Amino acid sequence: MSRYNAKIIENYQLAEDFYKMTIDAKKIAQWAYPGQFIHIKIPGDNSLLLRRPISINGIDVKTGQLDIVYQVVGKGTKALSKLKKGIGLDILGPLGKGFHIPEGTKKLYILGGGCGVAPMRFVGQRWRHLDIYSFLGFRSQSTVFQLNDFECFSRKVFLSTDDGTMGYKGSIVSLLNERLSIEKTDLLLACGPIPMIKALQKVVSEHDIPCQISLEERMGCGVGGCVVCSCVIGNRKQWDYKKVCTDGPVFWSQEVILDGES
Amino acid sequence: MENLNLGVNMAGLSFKNPIIAASGTFGFGLGYEDYLDLNILGGISVKGLTLEARKGNPPPRIAETPSGILNSVGLENPGIEYFLDRTALPLRQFDTVIIANINGNTSDEYCHMAEKLQDAPIDMVELNLSCPNVKEGGIAFGTDPKTVYSITKAVKRHTSQPLIVKLTPNVTDISQIALAAQQGGADVISLVNTFLGMAIDARTRRPILNNITGGLSGPAIKPLALRMVWQVSQLVEIPIIGMGGIMTGEDVVEFLLAGATAVSVGTANLVSPTAMIDILDGLKNYMTANKITNVNELIGGLITEGGNKL
Protein backbone atom coordinates (compact mmCIF):
# COMPACT_ATOMS: atom_id res chain seq x y z
CA MET A 1 0.00 0.00 0.00
CA SER A 2 1.27 3.36 -0.99
CA ARG A 3 0.41 6.62 -2.68
CA TYR A 4 0.71 6.83 -6.45
CA ASN A 5 0.04 9.01 -9.41
CA ALA A 6 -1.85 6.77 -11.83
CA LYS A 7 -2.58 7.78 -15.39
CA ILE A 8 -6.09 7.27 -16.74
CA ILE A 9 -6.05 4.94 -19.73
CA GLU A 10 -9.78 5.05 -20.40
CA ASN A 11 -12.94 6.25 -18.68
CA TYR A 12 -16.35 5.61 -20.22
CA GLN A 13 -19.98 4.98 -19.45
CA LEU A 14 -20.82 1.31 -19.03
CA ALA A 15 -24.53 1.46 -18.22
CA GLU A 16 -27.03 3.94 -16.82
CA ASP A 17 -25.20 5.69 -13.90
CA PHE A 18 -22.20 3.31 -14.11
CA TYR A 19 -18.76 4.15 -15.46
CA LYS A 20 -15.65 2.10 -15.98
CA MET A 21 -12.17 3.53 -15.60
CA THR A 22 -8.88 1.84 -16.38
CA ILE A 23 -5.73 3.26 -14.84
CA ASP A 24 -2.05 2.51 -15.14
CA ALA A 25 -1.09 1.31 -11.65
CA LYS A 26 1.63 -1.35 -11.92
CA LYS A 27 2.52 -1.64 -8.24
CA ILE A 28 -1.10 -1.89 -7.15
CA ALA A 29 -1.88 -4.36 -9.93
CA GLN A 30 1.00 -6.52 -8.75
CA TRP A 31 -0.14 -6.78 -5.12
CA ALA A 32 -3.90 -6.34 -5.10
CA TYR A 33 -6.33 -9.19 -4.56
CA PRO A 34 -10.15 -9.30 -4.84
CA GLY A 35 -12.15 -7.34 -2.30
CA GLN A 36 -9.51 -4.65 -1.85
CA PHE A 37 -10.07 -1.06 -2.87
CA ILE A 38 -8.25 2.06 -3.98
CA HIS A 39 -8.76 5.50 -2.44
CA ILE A 40 -9.06 8.23 -5.07
CA LYS A 41 -8.52 11.97 -4.69
CA ILE A 42 -10.93 13.85 -6.93
CA PRO A 43 -8.78 16.15 -9.06
CA GLY A 44 -9.67 19.67 -10.03
CA ASP A 45 -11.91 20.59 -7.10
CA ASN A 46 -10.19 21.31 -3.78
CA SER A 47 -13.53 21.76 -2.01
CA LEU A 48 -14.02 17.99 -2.27
CA LEU A 49 -11.57 17.04 0.43
CA LEU A 50 -12.12 13.36 1.03
CA ARG A 51 -10.90 10.57 -1.17
CA ARG A 52 -13.46 8.17 -2.66
CA PRO A 53 -12.99 4.51 -1.78
CA ILE A 54 -13.73 2.38 -4.84
CA SER A 55 -13.40 -1.40 -5.10
CA ILE A 56 -11.07 -2.95 -7.64
CA ASN A 57 -13.06 -4.34 -10.56
CA GLY A 58 -10.25 -6.18 -12.28
CA ILE A 59 -6.53 -6.28 -12.91
CA ASP A 60 -4.27 -7.12 -15.81
CA VAL A 61 -1.05 -8.19 -14.13
CA LYS A 62 0.86 -8.22 -17.45
CA THR A 63 0.09 -4.63 -18.40
CA GLY A 64 -0.19 -3.31 -14.84
CA GLN A 65 -3.62 -1.90 -15.58
CA LEU A 66 -6.40 -1.73 -13.02
CA ASP A 67 -10.15 -1.36 -13.61
CA ILE A 68 -12.73 0.26 -11.39
CA VAL A 69 -16.46 0.47 -11.98
CA TYR A 70 -18.21 3.25 -10.12
CA GLN A 71 -21.73 4.58 -9.84
CA VAL A 72 -22.27 8.32 -10.23
CA VAL A 73 -24.05 9.27 -7.00
CA GLY A 74 -22.71 12.69 -6.00
CA LYS A 75 -20.34 15.53 -6.86
CA GLY A 76 -17.19 13.44 -6.50
CA THR A 77 -18.19 10.55 -8.71
CA LYS A 78 -19.74 13.02 -11.19
CA ALA A 79 -16.37 14.80 -11.43
CA LEU A 80 -14.65 11.42 -11.79
CA SER A 81 -16.91 10.55 -14.73
CA LYS A 82 -15.80 13.67 -16.62
CA LEU A 83 -12.08 12.92 -16.47
CA LYS A 84 -10.27 12.37 -19.74
CA LYS A 85 -7.67 9.83 -20.76
CA GLY A 86 -4.10 10.84 -19.82
CA ILE A 87 -4.95 12.66 -16.59
CA GLY A 88 -2.99 11.57 -13.51
CA LEU A 89 -5.01 10.42 -10.49
CA ASP A 90 -3.70 10.63 -6.90
CA ILE A 91 -4.55 7.23 -5.43
CA LEU A 92 -3.78 5.12 -2.37
CA GLY A 93 -3.83 1.37 -2.62
CA PRO A 94 -4.32 -1.46 -2.55
CA LEU A 95 -6.19 -0.97 0.74
CA GLY A 96 -8.16 -3.23 3.04
CA LYS A 97 -8.49 -6.92 3.72
CA GLY A 98 -10.24 -8.55 0.78
CA PHE A 99 -11.88 -11.92 0.18
CA HIS A 100 -9.97 -15.10 0.91
CA ILE A 101 -10.58 -18.63 -0.26
CA PRO A 102 -10.14 -21.29 2.43
CA GLU A 103 -8.12 -24.32 1.37
CA GLY A 104 -10.17 -27.07 -0.25
CA THR A 105 -12.78 -24.73 -1.75
CA LYS A 106 -13.97 -26.13 -5.06
CA LYS A 107 -17.35 -24.64 -5.67
CA LEU A 108 -17.74 -20.88 -5.30
CA TYR A 109 -20.92 -18.83 -5.47
CA ILE A 110 -20.45 -15.10 -5.96
CA LEU A 111 -23.24 -12.59 -5.51
CA GLY A 112 -23.33 -8.90 -6.33
CA GLY A 113 -26.05 -6.28 -6.21
CA GLY A 114 -25.86 -3.03 -8.21
CA CYS A 115 -22.54 -1.34 -7.56
CA GLY A 116 -21.60 -4.43 -5.56
CA VAL A 117 -21.31 -6.40 -8.79
CA ALA A 118 -18.08 -4.51 -9.56
CA PRO A 119 -15.66 -6.20 -7.09
CA MET A 120 -17.10 -9.64 -7.90
CA ARG A 121 -15.67 -9.49 -11.44
CA PHE A 122 -12.16 -9.37 -9.93
CA VAL A 123 -13.09 -12.41 -7.77
CA GLY A 124 -14.09 -14.35 -10.87
CA GLN A 125 -10.99 -13.33 -12.82
CA ARG A 126 -8.56 -14.24 -10.04
CA TRP A 127 -10.18 -17.52 -9.00
CA ARG A 128 -11.50 -18.71 -12.35
CA HIS A 129 -10.05 -22.21 -11.74
CA LEU A 130 -12.89 -22.78 -9.23
CA ASP A 131 -16.42 -23.83 -10.18
CA ILE A 132 -18.01 -20.41 -10.13
CA TYR A 133 -21.73 -19.65 -10.13
CA SER A 134 -22.56 -15.95 -10.35
CA PHE A 135 -25.68 -14.26 -8.97
CA LEU A 136 -26.09 -10.69 -10.20
CA GLY A 137 -28.83 -8.30 -9.19
CA PHE A 138 -29.57 -5.01 -10.94
CA ARG A 139 -32.26 -2.35 -10.73
CA SER A 140 -33.17 -2.56 -14.39
CA GLN A 141 -31.83 -3.76 -17.73
CA SER A 142 -30.37 -0.30 -18.36
CA THR A 143 -28.02 -0.67 -15.37
CA VAL A 144 -26.69 -4.14 -16.21
CA PHE A 145 -22.93 -4.18 -16.80
CA GLN A 146 -20.12 -6.64 -17.57
CA LEU A 147 -22.49 -9.58 -17.99
CA ASN A 148 -20.22 -11.08 -20.71
CA ASP A 149 -17.22 -11.04 -18.37
CA PHE A 150 -19.17 -12.98 -15.75
CA GLU A 151 -20.32 -15.48 -18.39
CA CYS A 152 -16.66 -16.10 -19.28
CA PHE A 153 -15.60 -17.39 -15.88
CA SER A 154 -18.91 -18.74 -14.55
CA ARG A 155 -20.46 -22.17 -15.00
CA LYS A 156 -23.76 -20.33 -14.89
CA VAL A 157 -24.90 -16.75 -14.37
CA PHE A 158 -28.17 -16.03 -12.55
CA LEU A 159 -29.51 -12.55 -13.18
CA SER A 160 -32.33 -10.57 -11.68
CA THR A 161 -33.70 -7.05 -12.06
CA ASP A 162 -36.02 -5.23 -9.65
CA ASP A 163 -38.38 -4.28 -12.49
CA GLY A 164 -38.15 -7.55 -14.44
CA THR A 165 -36.80 -5.91 -17.62
CA MET A 166 -34.08 -8.57 -17.75
CA GLY A 167 -33.77 -12.00 -16.11
CA TYR A 168 -35.74 -12.95 -13.04
CA LYS A 169 -38.00 -10.24 -11.59
CA GLY A 170 -37.18 -9.63 -7.94
CA SER A 171 -34.33 -9.99 -5.52
CA ILE A 172 -31.18 -11.87 -6.46
CA VAL A 173 -31.14 -13.27 -2.92
CA SER A 174 -34.43 -15.12 -3.67
CA LEU A 175 -32.77 -16.70 -6.72
CA LEU A 176 -29.81 -17.68 -4.56
CA ASN A 177 -32.15 -19.15 -1.96
CA GLU A 178 -33.80 -21.34 -4.61
CA ARG A 179 -30.45 -22.46 -5.96
CA LEU A 180 -29.12 -23.33 -2.50
CA SER A 181 -32.14 -25.59 -1.95
CA ILE A 182 -31.03 -27.56 -5.01
CA GLU A 183 -27.27 -27.31 -4.78
CA LYS A 184 -25.04 -26.09 -1.93
CA THR A 185 -21.67 -24.41 -2.30
CA ASP A 186 -18.38 -24.51 -0.39
CA LEU A 187 -18.27 -20.74 -0.11
CA LEU A 188 -20.22 -17.62 -0.98
CA LEU A 189 -18.66 -14.20 -1.54
CA ALA A 190 -20.93 -11.16 -1.78
CA CYS A 191 -21.16 -7.40 -2.07
CA GLY A 192 -24.23 -5.20 -2.32
CA PRO A 193 -26.56 -2.73 -0.64
CA ILE A 194 -27.48 -3.15 3.05
CA PRO A 195 -31.05 -4.50 2.55
CA MET A 196 -29.64 -7.14 0.22
CA ILE A 197 -26.90 -8.08 2.67
CA LYS A 198 -29.46 -8.38 5.47
CA ALA A 199 -31.60 -10.76 3.39
CA LEU A 200 -28.46 -12.66 2.39
CA GLN A 201 -27.36 -13.13 6.02
CA LYS A 202 -30.67 -14.84 6.74
CA VAL A 203 -30.45 -17.14 3.71
CA VAL A 204 -26.85 -18.26 4.25
CA SER A 205 -27.51 -18.88 7.91
CA GLU A 206 -30.56 -21.05 7.07
CA HIS A 207 -28.54 -23.06 4.56
CA ASP A 208 -25.43 -23.03 6.77
CA ILE A 209 -23.15 -21.72 4.01
CA PRO A 210 -19.82 -20.02 4.81
CA CYS A 211 -20.15 -16.50 3.46
CA GLN A 212 -17.93 -13.44 3.29
CA ILE A 213 -19.43 -10.04 2.63
CA SER A 214 -17.83 -6.78 1.61
CA LEU A 215 -19.11 -3.74 3.51
CA GLU A 216 -19.31 -0.07 2.71
CA GLU A 217 -19.27 2.95 5.06
CA ARG A 218 -18.55 6.67 4.81
CA MET A 219 -14.76 6.71 5.01
CA GLY A 220 -12.01 9.14 5.94
CA CYS A 221 -8.31 8.33 5.73
CA GLY A 222 -8.69 4.75 4.46
CA VAL A 223 -5.62 3.62 6.40
CA GLY A 224 -6.99 3.07 9.91
CA GLY A 225 -6.05 6.38 11.51
CA CYS A 226 -9.28 8.34 11.84
CA VAL A 227 -11.74 5.60 12.92
CA VAL A 228 -14.80 7.00 11.18
CA CYS A 229 -15.76 4.05 8.90
CA SER A 230 -17.03 1.84 11.71
CA CYS A 231 -19.11 -1.31 11.39
CA VAL A 232 -20.47 -3.54 14.14
CA ILE A 233 -18.67 -6.88 14.37
CA GLY A 234 -19.26 -9.69 16.87
CA ASN A 235 -22.46 -11.09 18.29
CA ARG A 236 -25.37 -9.52 20.08
CA LYS A 237 -23.82 -10.07 23.51
CA GLN A 238 -20.33 -8.93 22.67
CA TRP A 239 -19.49 -6.63 19.80
CA ASP A 240 -16.97 -4.02 18.75
CA TYR A 241 -16.72 -1.32 16.17
CA LYS A 242 -14.27 -2.43 13.52
CA LYS A 243 -12.80 -0.31 10.77
CA VAL A 244 -14.18 -1.03 7.30
CA CYS A 245 -10.95 0.36 5.79
CA THR A 246 -8.33 -1.82 7.50
CA ASP A 247 -10.17 -4.55 9.45
CA GLY A 248 -12.40 -5.06 6.39
CA PRO A 249 -14.05 -4.28 4.04
CA VAL A 250 -14.58 -8.06 3.91
CA PHE A 251 -15.95 -9.85 6.98
CA TRP A 252 -17.59 -13.23 7.65
CA SER A 253 -21.33 -12.84 7.30
CA GLN A 254 -22.24 -14.27 10.72
CA GLU A 255 -20.13 -11.68 12.59
CA VAL A 256 -21.60 -8.62 10.86
CA ILE A 257 -24.42 -6.93 12.81
CA LEU A 258 -26.54 -4.63 10.67
CA ASP A 259 -29.40 -3.88 13.10
CA GLY A 260 -29.04 -0.11 12.99
CA GLU A 261 -28.34 0.06 9.27
CA SER A 262 -30.81 0.79 6.54
CA MET B 1 17.89 24.47 1.95
CA GLU B 2 20.18 22.42 4.25
CA ASN B 3 20.89 25.47 6.39
CA LEU B 4 17.31 26.04 7.43
CA ASN B 5 16.65 26.04 11.15
CA LEU B 6 13.19 24.55 11.65
CA GLY B 7 13.38 23.80 15.37
CA VAL B 8 11.05 25.43 17.88
CA ASN B 9 10.88 25.23 21.68
CA MET B 10 7.85 24.97 23.91
CA ALA B 11 7.66 24.22 27.64
CA GLY B 12 11.37 23.38 27.72
CA LEU B 13 11.04 20.81 24.95
CA SER B 14 12.71 20.98 21.55
CA PHE B 15 10.63 20.19 18.51
CA LYS B 16 12.68 19.49 15.37
CA ASN B 17 10.08 21.40 13.38
CA PRO B 18 6.72 23.03 14.13
CA ILE B 19 4.60 20.28 12.53
CA ILE B 20 2.58 18.13 14.94
CA ALA B 21 0.05 15.45 14.00
CA ALA B 22 -3.30 16.50 15.50
CA SER B 23 -4.99 14.15 17.93
CA GLY B 24 -7.60 11.89 16.36
CA THR B 25 -6.39 12.19 12.80
CA PHE B 26 -3.30 10.01 12.93
CA GLY B 27 -4.23 7.13 15.24
CA PHE B 28 -1.28 6.34 17.48
CA GLY B 29 1.17 7.08 14.68
CA LEU B 30 2.11 3.40 14.46
CA GLY B 31 1.01 1.86 11.18
CA TYR B 32 1.85 5.00 9.23
CA GLU B 33 5.47 3.93 8.66
CA ASP B 34 4.52 2.63 5.22
CA TYR B 35 3.67 6.19 4.21
CA LEU B 36 6.01 8.45 6.14
CA ASP B 37 8.95 8.33 8.51
CA LEU B 38 7.57 9.37 11.91
CA ASN B 39 11.03 10.71 12.77
CA ILE B 40 10.52 13.68 10.45
CA LEU B 41 7.64 15.04 12.56
CA GLY B 42 7.92 17.73 15.21
CA GLY B 43 5.45 15.81 17.33
CA ILE B 44 2.53 13.41 17.47
CA SER B 45 -0.56 14.00 19.57
CA VAL B 46 -2.09 10.56 19.91
CA LYS B 47 -5.73 9.57 19.58
CA GLY B 48 -7.75 10.99 22.49
CA LEU B 49 -7.55 8.69 25.51
CA THR B 50 -10.12 8.06 28.21
CA LEU B 51 -9.86 6.23 31.54
CA GLU B 52 -11.83 3.26 30.21
CA ALA B 53 -12.02 2.01 26.63
CA ARG B 54 -14.75 3.76 24.62
CA LYS B 55 -16.66 2.39 21.66
CA GLY B 56 -17.50 5.83 20.26
CA ASN B 57 -20.61 6.89 18.35
CA PRO B 58 -22.54 4.77 15.82
CA PRO B 59 -21.73 5.35 12.13
CA PRO B 60 -21.94 7.30 9.88
CA ARG B 61 -19.32 9.35 11.68
CA ILE B 62 -18.10 11.50 8.81
CA ALA B 63 -19.61 13.84 6.24
CA GLU B 64 -17.92 15.92 3.60
CA THR B 65 -18.97 19.57 3.39
CA PRO B 66 -17.55 22.23 1.05
CA SER B 67 -13.81 22.43 1.89
CA GLY B 68 -14.53 20.75 5.19
CA ILE B 69 -15.19 17.55 7.06
CA LEU B 70 -17.68 16.91 9.84
CA ASN B 71 -16.88 14.11 12.22
CA SER B 72 -18.61 12.57 15.21
CA VAL B 73 -16.25 9.79 16.25
CA GLY B 74 -17.00 10.30 19.95
CA LEU B 75 -13.57 9.42 21.35
CA GLU B 76 -13.39 5.76 20.33
CA ASN B 77 -10.17 4.53 21.97
CA PRO B 78 -8.78 1.45 23.73
CA GLY B 79 -8.39 3.24 27.08
CA ILE B 80 -5.35 4.67 28.86
CA GLU B 81 -4.17 1.34 30.29
CA TYR B 82 -3.97 -0.17 26.81
CA PHE B 83 -2.00 2.86 25.64
CA LEU B 84 0.45 2.52 28.53
CA ASP B 85 0.84 -1.25 28.11
CA ARG B 86 0.95 -1.57 24.35
CA THR B 87 1.45 1.72 22.53
CA ALA B 88 3.59 4.15 24.50
CA LEU B 89 6.85 2.19 24.30
CA PRO B 90 6.73 1.26 20.60
CA LEU B 91 6.00 4.92 19.90
CA ARG B 92 8.94 6.04 22.05
CA GLN B 93 11.42 4.52 19.59
CA PHE B 94 10.70 7.42 17.23
CA ASP B 95 12.60 10.66 17.64
CA THR B 96 9.63 12.99 17.90
CA VAL B 97 7.71 14.67 20.72
CA ILE B 98 4.97 12.31 21.96
CA ILE B 99 1.86 13.97 23.34
CA ALA B 100 -0.81 12.02 25.23
CA ASN B 101 -4.23 13.58 24.65
CA ILE B 102 -6.58 12.91 27.58
CA ASN B 103 -10.34 13.28 28.02
CA GLY B 104 -12.37 12.97 31.18
CA ASN B 105 -15.99 13.06 32.33
CA THR B 106 -14.95 14.77 35.56
CA SER B 107 -12.04 16.80 36.88
CA ASP B 108 -11.00 13.78 38.93
CA GLU B 109 -10.81 11.62 35.83
CA TYR B 110 -8.44 14.08 34.15
CA CYS B 111 -6.28 14.09 37.29
CA HIS B 112 -6.31 10.31 37.53
CA MET B 113 -5.16 9.99 33.92
CA ALA B 114 -2.46 12.63 34.34
CA GLU B 115 -1.17 10.66 37.33
CA LYS B 116 -1.05 7.46 35.29
CA LEU B 117 0.97 9.30 32.63
CA GLN B 118 3.43 10.78 35.13
CA ASP B 119 6.05 8.08 34.58
CA ALA B 120 5.00 7.05 31.08
CA PRO B 121 7.48 7.31 28.18
CA ILE B 122 5.80 10.40 26.76
CA ASP B 123 6.85 14.05 26.56
CA MET B 124 3.67 16.05 27.15
CA VAL B 125 0.07 15.74 28.24
CA GLU B 126 -2.68 17.45 26.25
CA LEU B 127 -5.82 18.20 28.21
CA ASN B 128 -8.68 17.99 25.74
CA LEU B 129 -11.36 20.33 27.09
CA SER B 130 -13.00 20.58 23.72
CA CYS B 131 -14.40 17.35 22.26
CA PRO B 132 -17.78 18.26 20.69
CA ASN B 133 -18.95 14.66 20.28
CA VAL B 134 -19.35 13.33 23.80
CA LYS B 135 -22.22 13.94 26.18
CA GLU B 136 -20.16 14.57 29.30
CA GLY B 137 -16.94 16.50 29.79
CA GLY B 138 -15.20 17.72 26.67
CA ILE B 139 -16.74 20.85 25.27
CA ALA B 140 -18.92 21.37 28.35
CA PHE B 141 -15.74 22.00 30.37
CA GLY B 142 -14.00 24.05 27.71
CA THR B 143 -16.69 26.69 27.36
CA ASP B 144 -16.51 27.96 30.94
CA PRO B 145 -13.38 29.91 31.97
CA LYS B 146 -13.81 28.98 35.66
CA THR B 147 -13.92 25.25 34.86
CA VAL B 148 -10.97 25.53 32.48
CA TYR B 149 -9.00 27.24 35.24
CA SER B 150 -9.92 24.75 37.95
CA ILE B 151 -9.34 21.60 35.89
CA THR B 152 -6.02 22.89 34.54
CA LYS B 153 -4.91 23.76 38.06
CA ALA B 154 -6.04 20.41 39.47
CA VAL B 155 -4.27 18.43 36.73
CA LYS B 156 -1.07 20.43 37.19
CA ARG B 157 -0.96 19.21 40.78
CA HIS B 158 -1.02 15.59 39.57
CA THR B 159 1.71 15.70 36.96
CA SER B 160 5.06 17.29 36.30
CA GLN B 161 4.77 16.55 32.58
CA PRO B 162 4.44 19.71 30.48
CA LEU B 163 0.76 20.44 29.98
CA ILE B 164 -1.06 21.56 26.84
CA VAL B 165 -4.68 22.69 27.17
CA LYS B 166 -6.68 22.23 23.96
CA LEU B 167 -9.45 24.76 23.49
CA THR B 168 -12.78 24.67 21.74
CA PRO B 169 -13.70 27.51 19.37
CA ASN B 170 -17.40 27.16 20.28
CA VAL B 171 -17.29 30.09 22.71
CA THR B 172 -18.06 33.79 22.63
CA ASP B 173 -14.57 34.91 23.58
CA ILE B 174 -11.79 32.36 23.27
CA SER B 175 -9.22 34.80 24.71
CA GLN B 176 -10.86 34.56 28.12
CA ILE B 177 -10.73 30.76 28.01
CA ALA B 178 -7.07 30.90 26.96
CA LEU B 179 -6.28 33.26 29.83
CA ALA B 180 -8.01 30.94 32.26
CA ALA B 181 -5.87 28.03 31.03
CA GLN B 182 -2.74 30.13 31.43
CA GLN B 183 -3.72 31.19 34.93
CA GLY B 184 -4.45 27.56 35.78
CA GLY B 185 -0.86 26.71 34.93
CA ALA B 186 -1.01 25.47 31.33
CA ASP B 187 2.42 25.41 29.68
CA VAL B 188 1.04 25.56 26.16
CA ILE B 189 -2.41 26.04 24.64
CA SER B 190 -3.59 24.44 21.44
CA LEU B 191 -6.43 25.82 19.36
CA VAL B 192 -8.77 25.28 17.72
CA ASN B 193 -10.64 22.04 18.08
CA THR B 194 -13.57 21.61 15.66
CA PHE B 195 -16.59 23.88 15.23
CA LEU B 196 -19.97 22.33 15.98
CA GLY B 197 -21.88 21.81 12.78
CA MET B 198 -24.25 19.54 10.94
CA ALA B 199 -24.98 18.18 7.48
CA ILE B 200 -28.38 17.20 6.12
CA ASP B 201 -29.23 15.02 3.15
CA ALA B 202 -32.09 16.83 1.40
CA ARG B 203 -32.99 13.69 -0.55
CA THR B 204 -33.59 11.53 2.52
CA ARG B 205 -34.42 14.51 4.82
CA ARG B 206 -32.11 13.00 7.40
CA PRO B 207 -28.91 14.16 9.08
CA ILE B 208 -25.84 12.57 7.48
CA LEU B 209 -24.15 11.91 10.83
CA ASN B 210 -25.79 9.37 13.10
CA ASN B 211 -24.96 11.73 15.99
CA ILE B 212 -26.86 14.50 14.09
CA THR B 213 -24.17 17.10 14.92
CA GLY B 214 -20.41 16.85 14.60
CA GLY B 215 -17.20 18.85 14.57
CA LEU B 216 -16.23 20.79 11.45
CA SER B 217 -12.59 20.88 10.38
CA GLY B 218 -10.59 21.57 7.24
CA PRO B 219 -9.87 24.64 5.07
CA ALA B 220 -13.47 25.81 5.66
CA ILE B 221 -12.51 26.84 9.22
CA LYS B 222 -9.02 28.19 8.54
CA PRO B 223 -9.93 31.91 8.57
CA LEU B 224 -11.83 31.44 11.86
CA ALA B 225 -8.93 29.54 13.41
CA LEU B 226 -6.36 32.10 12.25
CA ARG B 227 -8.42 34.90 13.79
CA MET B 228 -8.65 33.04 17.10
CA VAL B 229 -4.95 32.22 17.22
CA TRP B 230 -4.16 35.86 16.50
CA GLN B 231 -6.60 37.11 19.17
CA VAL B 232 -5.28 34.71 21.80
CA SER B 233 -1.65 35.50 20.98
CA GLN B 234 -2.33 39.16 21.74
CA LEU B 235 -3.31 38.23 25.28
CA VAL B 236 -1.44 35.18 26.55
CA GLU B 237 2.26 34.68 27.28
CA ILE B 238 2.49 30.89 26.88
CA PRO B 239 3.16 29.32 23.46
CA ILE B 240 0.30 28.44 21.14
CA ILE B 241 -0.10 25.40 18.92
CA GLY B 242 -2.32 26.64 16.10
CA MET B 243 -4.56 24.45 14.00
CA GLY B 244 -7.55 24.57 11.69
CA GLY B 245 -7.45 23.52 8.04
CA ILE B 246 -3.71 23.46 7.49
CA MET B 247 -3.14 21.79 4.11
CA THR B 248 0.06 23.45 2.83
CA GLY B 249 3.36 24.92 3.95
CA GLU B 250 1.98 28.41 3.40
CA ASP B 251 -0.89 27.63 5.78
CA VAL B 252 1.73 26.81 8.43
CA VAL B 253 3.44 30.14 7.78
CA GLU B 254 0.12 31.98 8.21
CA PHE B 255 -0.49 30.38 11.61
CA LEU B 256 3.05 31.18 12.75
CA LEU B 257 2.65 34.80 11.62
CA ALA B 258 -0.61 34.96 13.58
CA GLY B 259 1.33 34.04 16.71
CA ALA B 260 1.51 30.25 16.90
CA THR B 261 4.83 28.65 17.85
CA ALA B 262 3.88 25.33 16.30
CA VAL B 263 0.93 23.90 14.38
CA SER B 264 -1.12 20.75 14.30
CA VAL B 265 -2.14 19.10 11.05
CA GLY B 266 -5.42 17.21 11.22
CA THR B 267 -7.82 17.05 8.31
CA ALA B 268 -4.93 16.90 5.82
CA ASN B 269 -3.97 13.52 7.33
CA LEU B 270 -7.41 12.21 6.38
CA VAL B 271 -6.86 13.34 2.82
CA SER B 272 -3.40 11.81 2.48
CA PRO B 273 -1.30 9.85 4.95
CA THR B 274 1.74 11.57 3.44
CA ALA B 275 0.30 15.09 3.88
CA MET B 276 2.72 16.17 6.60
CA ILE B 277 5.73 15.43 4.36
CA ASP B 278 4.32 17.74 1.70
CA ILE B 279 3.45 20.41 4.28
CA LEU B 280 6.95 20.31 5.76
CA ASP B 281 8.48 20.55 2.26
CA GLY B 282 6.17 23.47 1.55
CA LEU B 283 7.36 25.26 4.68
CA LYS B 284 11.00 24.72 3.68
CA ASN B 285 10.31 25.99 0.17
CA TYR B 286 8.63 29.12 1.54
CA MET B 287 11.58 29.81 3.83
CA THR B 288 14.11 29.30 1.04
CA ALA B 289 12.17 31.48 -1.38
CA ASN B 290 11.78 34.22 1.24
CA LYS B 291 15.35 33.94 2.56
CA ILE B 292 14.25 32.99 6.06
CA THR B 293 16.80 30.75 7.71
CA ASN B 294 15.16 30.37 11.12
CA VAL B 295 11.51 29.44 11.43
CA ASN B 296 11.30 31.34 14.72
CA GLU B 297 11.55 34.57 12.72
CA LEU B 298 8.04 33.89 11.47
CA ILE B 299 6.38 33.43 14.87
CA GLY B 300 4.17 36.42 15.60
CA GLY B 301 5.66 38.14 12.56
CA LEU B 302 2.39 39.48 11.20
CA ILE B 303 2.91 42.92 9.71
CA THR B 304 0.02 45.23 10.55
CA GLU B 305 1.62 48.68 10.45
CA GLY B 306 0.63 50.67 7.41
CA GLY B 307 -2.48 48.62 6.79
CA ASN B 308 -2.43 45.76 4.32
CA LYS B 309 -0.83 47.65 1.42
CA LEU B 310 2.74 47.17 0.36
Q: Outline of chain A, from the CA principal axes?
A: globular
Give average pLDDT of chain A, whole number. Answer: 95
Distance between the termini of chain B: 27 Å
Sheet/helix structural class of chain B:
alpha/beta
Main pleated sheet of chain B: 8 strands, parallel, barrel
The CATH class label of chain B is Alpha Beta
Instruction: List the helices and strands of chain B in order.
Output: EEEEEEHEHEHHEHEEEEEHEHEHH
How do the helices and strands line up, and which of them pair or pack?
The complex is a heterodimer of chains A (262) and B (310).
Chain A lengths: L1 E14 L2 E7 L1 H6 L5 E4 L11 E4 L2 E3 L4 E7 L3 H7 L6 E8 L11 E7 L3 H10 L4 E8 L8 H7 L2 E6 L6 E2 L2 H11 L4 E5 L2 H14 L3 E4 L15 E5 L4 E5 L6 E3 L3 E2 L5
Parallel strand pairs in A: 8-9, 8-12, 9-10, 10-11, 12-13
Antiparallel strand pairs in A: 1-2, 1-7, 2-6, 3-4, 3-7, 5-6, 13-16, 14-15, 14-17
Helix pairs in contact in A: 5-6
Chain B lengths: L7 E3 L2 E3 L3 E3 L21 E3 L16 E4 L2 E4 L8 H13 L4 E6 L4 H11 L6 E5 L10 H4 L2 H14 L4 E4 L7 H11 L3 E4 L3 E4 L1 E2 L4 E2 L5 E5 L4 H14 L4 E3 L6 H10 L3 E4 L1 H5 L3 H15 L21
Parallel strand pairs in B: 3-4, 3-16, 4-7, 7-8, 8-9, 9-10, 10-15, 15-16
Antiparallel strand pairs in B: 1-2, 5-6, 6-14, 11-14, 12-13
Helix pairs in contact in B: 2-4, 4-5, 5-6, 6-7, 7-9
